[in-house]
Write a structure and sequence with these properties.
The protein has 468 residues and is α/β, with parallel strands linked by helices. The protein has three domains: 4-148 and 275-346, FAD/NAD(P)-binding domain (3-Layer(bba) Sandwich); 162-272, FAD/NAD(P)-binding domain, CATH 3.50.50.60; 357-461, Enolase-like, domain 1. It has twelve helices and 21 strands. A five-stranded mixed β-barrel has the order 1-2-3-4-5. Strands 7-14-8-9-10 form a five-stranded parallel beta sheet. It has a five-stranded antiparallel beta sheet with strand order 17-18-21-20-19, with helices on both faces. A hairpin with a 4-residue loop joins strand 17 and strand 18. Helix 1 (14-25) packs parallel to helix 7 (323-337), helix 3 packs antiparallel against helix 4 and helix 3 packs parallel to helix 5 (185-196).
Length: 468
């Protein structure tokens, strides 16, 4: 293995492997260090991809039980084969991680499997998974090590009964009663999976609302929908302790009014957040500051740390912990290193919660618009009045567009409904080009499609939606 490189990337998740590929395309000699045994990082191996595979499989199971008869599809003896469902999930993961390995070979990127320590401004030592060490020298080092779940001090992960998001993707059976601590996107998505498959699911959230960063109106629509689906959600509830005995857990919590609740369950998912994975890199010895609470490191506008030859992207730096944000930063960072004008527009990074219906957004919320003192107008359109949604029997939710009252520029778009994750791309593109609600309203949309709901919401900004 060569030891001299133009760029050494530490971490082969979406940010790291995309950065490595783009750097190689730009003519750099690249090595990518990965602590795990496969490429793809948390997202491909134990995060975004396997969770979406399980969400889709569990939704099909739920539909076959609850909705297929309405479509004239009838059958007897429906059974869940959890082992087959999990095997399909693993097959999806393997296909994509193998795909990244192929892209590394195609772009002549050197993968190095082991734990990295940065020993100098241009030096990386790797404790190889296969044994021994490797010393790499590079003109530049890029930290893309991602993040890890935050544990509760009184409820440590055991990988079976008390789990993080990784463990919740591989239960060997459907839990009788799953308690989810934290009502962010991870807890709600995985709670939805196991509810659809037959578990009782109780969600405990310390804050007065679920998905606290989402538009409040849309978050409330999601909460109502999840409750209707059978999830039990306790807001303003602080988990105060837990006792694990064998396969059972007794969880204690306190409501805002001081009343105590006790819940007996057989599985607990702790989903209270994630922390940047930077602790083992040796950054402090190099004079690079690390936030003790979040693990994040400060960077300048070009992603450089206080050591100019060392950069950082993704979950390691400020901003939402999203795979696509890390990818964009990886591309921008390597393009800047190559003398190009790499750039990330943080105002147009979409976010998605893959429950069903889904919730997706881009831009700012209505609460943020008010905080900024911007005069604005709102356009809304319900899926109940959309022809394609009617045909699909998926009429829950709406599209909400916020536009500047003076310029009509789109400030934010929030969608709660079917395929919101796919629908949001149109609004991202419009906002990327500083477009207006009128731009969306005057764009011809195919009929019948769900995307027409976005056009109607844009028309509603001016008060003349056609179908409502």
């Amino acid at each position: 293995m060569a030891t001299q490189f133009d760029l050494v990337v530490i971490g082969a998740g979406p940010g790291g492997y995309v950065a490595a590929i783009r750097a190689a395309q730009l003519g750099m000699k690249v090595a990518c260090v990965e602590k795990g045994r496969t490429l793809g990082g948390t997202c491909l191996n134990v995060g975004c991809i396997p969770s979406k595979a399980m969400l889709d499989s569990s939704e099909l199971f739920h539909l076959s039980k609850e909705r297929f008869q309405k479509h004239g599809i009838k059958f007897d003896g429906l059974k869940l084969d959890l082992a087959a469902m999990l095997a399909r999930k693993d097959e999806v993961v393997k296909g994509l991680t193998d795909g990244v390995r192929f892209l590394f070979r195609k772009n002549k990127i050197e993968p190095v499997f082991g734990a990295a320590t940065i020993t100098g401004p241009t030096s990386v030592r790797v404790a190889l998974n296969e044994g021994g060490t490797a010393d790499l020298e590079a003109k530049h080092i890029l930290i893309a090590t991602g993040s890890v779940p935050v544990a509760l001090p009184f409820l440590p992960f055991d990988g079976k009964t008390v789990v993080d998001s990784t463990g919740a993707l591989s239960f060997d059976r459907v839990p009788e009663h799953l308690v989810v601590i934290g009502a962010g996107y991870i807890g709600l998505e995985l709670g939805s999976v196991w509810k659809r498959l037959g578990a009782k699911v109780t969600v405990l959230e310390f804050l007065p609302r679920i998905t606290p960063l989402a538009d409040q109106e849309m978050g409330e629509l999601l909460r109502r929908s999840l409750v209707k689906q059978g999830l039990e959600i306790h807001l303003e509830t602080k988990v105060t302790g837990a006792k694990v005995e064998g396969d059972r857990v007794d969880v204690r919590a306190q409501k805002k009014d001081g009343s105590e609740i006790a819940i007996a369950c057989d599985r607990v998912l702790v989903a209270v957040g994630r922390k940047a994975y930077t602790g083992d890199l040796g950054l402090e010895k190099l004079g690079i500051a690390v936030d003790p609470r979040t693990g994040k490191v400060p960077v300048d506008a070009h992603f450089r740390t206080s050591v100019p030859t060392i950069s950082a992207i993704g979950d390691v730096i400020e901003g939402p912990m999203l795979a696509h944000k890390a990818e964009d930063e990886g591309i921008a960072c390597t393009e800047i290193l190559a003398g190009k004008a790499g750039h990330v527009n943080y105002e147009t990074i979409p976010s998605v919660i893959y429950t069903w219906p889904e919730m997706a957004s881009v831009g700012i919320t209505e609460e943020q618009v008010k905080e900024k003192g911007i005069e604005y107008r709102v356009g809304k359109f319900p899926f109940l009045a959309n022809g394609r949604a009617k045909a699909m029997d998926e009429t829950e939710g709406l599209v909400k567009i916020l536009a500047d009252a003076k310029t009509d520029r789109v400030l934010g778009v929030h969608i709660f409904g079917p395929k919101a994750s796919e629908m949001i791309a149109e609004s991202v593109a419009v906002m990327e080009f500083a477009g207006s609600a009128e731009d969306i309203a005057r764009t011809c949309h195919a009929h019948p499609t769900l995307s027409e709901a976005t056009r109607e919401a844009a028309l509603a900004v001016e008060g003349h939606a056609i179908h409502s």
